[in-house]
Each structure stands twice: as structure tokens, then as C-alpha cells.
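Progress note, sequence design subtask.
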């Protein structure tokens, strides 16, 4: 009997011992990682250490996917720190300001891996050194109000070789959906130019924001963008001039309603150089007094209330000298002549970007006639001028 009891006691102690060991193992956590099983942390730099020809517009970042950043600085050669911010999770840092061209930047700081080991943040990179820095200028400033045919234009002060790179940096946002496209026109004033026009006239009242993130963009041939440019502006009322030369009248349609009907005289049709061009012109400038000179036709005059509608010399303006022909015949050198009172009345309503639709002549408006010939092309033709 005592042997039986002894065996039972030994078995019981063995069971209790196993139970005790199981309890200890559970408390320690069988799945808890040991330091040796933790992921090895690493510091990821972008641009990588030693990189050259880096775009200064691209953000510089440092990340520690399996750890946290303790402190990071990125400094230029004079020791000035570049502005930056740490992400909410503490695992990455990124610049919040553009870098400079042709400058070497150096990283400094530390990070801590998940295993508690310290990691250095170190290295340097150098930004691109442009052969030329090209400026781009928008034609419509902030808070302006323009007409429904106004193109958005960016004029560059030098030739742009890589037009696709530039176009990818451009965007147009509108308060209502508007389809449109960028199109590259022949270089002018020593530099390239790109226009954006809608497929049809702008909807009246549209708010437009143009963003050209040009700083740091490589233009080709070693040239880069000088600075970003932006503008937010509005489209005004829908005012359209309808000018049929055979009617000898000039109609003004505003928001679908005819608001004026002026007797007019257009270009003399017997001379192709004097014929008013047919097609959609666009108001670009206004002058209370404009000197008009032609050696070929022998005049040097100052005309009142002149509204430029093309760069080939076509204006809508007052001309008392042609008063007897206004409303009955075409005798001008290509301009639209009105009485002084009518010319001033129209002048007071005109906006940059208003369309002037001339019809009835056999000489079409074309690219040779100046800056804004965007609307002489169909929309499909216009999209063909895009670099993308």
C-alpha cells in the first residue's frame, strides 16, 4: 500500500511541475520577440547620398521604416538649415521648402531602431547647376476679370526645348467643368509660349486657377525653370461682337441678348491687305487715344477709343473721317470704324478676352496676324499643338 501511495505522490508532483512550467511559459509570452529577431532598422535617404544633378524642386526625405527619428537637419554650405517637418508617426522627415540650384546639402541627425540601437543620419547630395534659368510669365493676373475667349498664356524669356516636361508641370482648375488643352505656338519675343484655351468659349462667371510649378523643371539643353507662377481670376459676362462686313453693322451680344447695333465700315475688299480678316478675333488691348501710322498708305493719325482685336493692326475705333461710309460701305484699311459716340460706348464695355466674330470676307484670320489666333483652329487641331 505504501508503494502505491508513493507512486501516486510522484505522479502528482510531476503533473504539478508541468503545470507550473506551463504557467511560467505563458507569463513570459511564447511569441514575444527576442532582440535578435527584431527587424534591422535602416535609414533611407532620398536623394541617395552622393547624388548629383538633383532637381531642387523635389522634396528631400529621410525615412526609418523600422524605427523612429530622434533629430534630423539638412543644411546648406553656409550652415543654414532647410525647413522641414517630421511625419506624425515619427518615421520620416521631409523638406517643406524648395532647395537652391547648384548647392550641396548635408544630412545630420540620429534615429533609433526598433531594437533600440542608434543609427546615424548622414550623407550629402548636390542640386542641378543650370546652364540657363528661364522665366515664365502669365498673361492674366490675380483677381482680374476677362472675356469668354481669353486664352491663358505663359510667355518664356528663352526657348523651351523639352515642352512635354514643362506642360506636365501646368494645371488649370475651374469652378465648373471646362474642357480645354494647352497648345504651343511659335516662339515670340525671343522665347517659347504656350496657351490654354477651352474647347468652347468659357462659361460666364467661371473661376479659374492656373498653377505652373516651373521651378526646378528641366527645360532641355541645360536650362531650368526660374520660379513657380500662379493666378486665380474670373470670367466675366459673355459678351460677343458679331461683325458681318456685308451688313455694314456691328452687333454686341451680351449674355445671349443683343445690347447694341452700330453702323460700321470695314476694310476695303478690293485690296487683300486692307480686307478685314474673317474669323474669331480676341480683344487684347484698349486705348483712349491710339496713334496709327502707315507709310504704305500715307497716314499718321491719332484715333479715339481704339480696341485692339489682332496684332496685324485691326482695331475697333472711332473715325469721323469715314462717318459717311459707316452703315453703307467698307472703306477702311482693315479696322472697324464707328462714330465717336458709338466707339466710346463699345470701348466702355470691352474686356480683354472678348471674342469679335468677323464674317463675310475671303481673307481668313491666321497665325501671321499676331498673338491670339487660338480660335482660328478647331478644337481637335488645337489639341494637336499639345506636347503631351
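Output:
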Amino acid at each position: 500500500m505504501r508503494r502505491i501511495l508513493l507512486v501516486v505522490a510522484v505522479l502528482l508532483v510531476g503533473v504539478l511541475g508541468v503545470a507550473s512550467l506551463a504557467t511560467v511559459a505563458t507569463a513570459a509570452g511564447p511569441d514575444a520577440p527576442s532582440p535578435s529577431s527584431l527587424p534591422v532598422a535602416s535609414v533611407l535617404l532620398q536623394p541617395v547620398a552622393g547624388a548629383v544633378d538633383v532637381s531642387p524642386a523635389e522634396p528631400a526625405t529621410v525615412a526609418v521604416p523600422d524605427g523612429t527619428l530622434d533629430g534630423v537637419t539638412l543644411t546648406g554650405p553656409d550652415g543654414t538649415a532647410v525647413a522641414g517637418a517630421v511625419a506624425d508617426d515619427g518615421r520620416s522627415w521631409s523638406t517643406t521648402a524648395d532647395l537652391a540650384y547648384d548647392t550641396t546639402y548635408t544630412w545630420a541627425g540620429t534615429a533609433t531602431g526598433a531594437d533600440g540601437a542608434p543609427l546615424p543620419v548622414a550623407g550629402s547630395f548636390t542640386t542641378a547647376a543650370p546652364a540657363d534659368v528661364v522665366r515664365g510669365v502669365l498673361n492674366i493676373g490675380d483677381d482680374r476679370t476677362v472675356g469668354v475667349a481669353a486664352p491663358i498664356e505663359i510667355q518664356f524669356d528663352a526657348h523651351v526645348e523639352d515642352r512635354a516636361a514643362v506642360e506636365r508641370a501646368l494645371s488649370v482648375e475651374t469652378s465648373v467643368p471646362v474642357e480645354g488643352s494647352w497648345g504651343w505656338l511659335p516662339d515670340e519675343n525671343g522665347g517659347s509660349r504656350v496657351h490654354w484655351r477651352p474647347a468652347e468659349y468659357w462659361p460666364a462667371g467661371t473661376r479659374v486657377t492656373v498653377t505652373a510649378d516651373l521651378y526646378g523643371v528641366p527645360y532641355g539643353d541645360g536650362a531650368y525653370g526660374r520660379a513657380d507662377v500662379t493666378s486665380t481670376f474670373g470670367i466675366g459676362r459673355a459678351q460677343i461682337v458679331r461683325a458681318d462686313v456685308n451688313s455694314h453693322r456691328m452687333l454686341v451680344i451680351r449674355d445671349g441678348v443683343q445690347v447694341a447695333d452700330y453702323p460700321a465700315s470695314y476694310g476695303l475688299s478690293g485690296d487683300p491687305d486692307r480686307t478685314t480678316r474673317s474669323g474669331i478675333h480676341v480683344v487684347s488691348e484698349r486705348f483712349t487715344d491710339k496713334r496709327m501710322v502707315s507709310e504704305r498708305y500715307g497716314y499718321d493719325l491719332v484715333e479715339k477709343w481704339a480696341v485692339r482685336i489682332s496684332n496685324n493692326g485691326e482695331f475697333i475705333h472711332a473715325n469721323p473721317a469715314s462717318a459717311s461710309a459707316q452703315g453703307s460701305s467698307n472703306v477702311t484699311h482693315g479696322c472697324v470704324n464707328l462714330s465717336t459716340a458709338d466707339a466710346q460706348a463699345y470701348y466702355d464695355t470691352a474686356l480683354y478676352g472678348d471674342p469679335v466674330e468677323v464674317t463675310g470676307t475671303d481673307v481668313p484670320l491666321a497665325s501671321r496676324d499676331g498673338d491670339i489666333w487660338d480660335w482660328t483652329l478647331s478644337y481637335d487641331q488645337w489639341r494637336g499643338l499639345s506636347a503631351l
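The CA atoms of residues 238 and 264 lie 22 Å apart. Work on this subtask will continue into the next period as scheduled.
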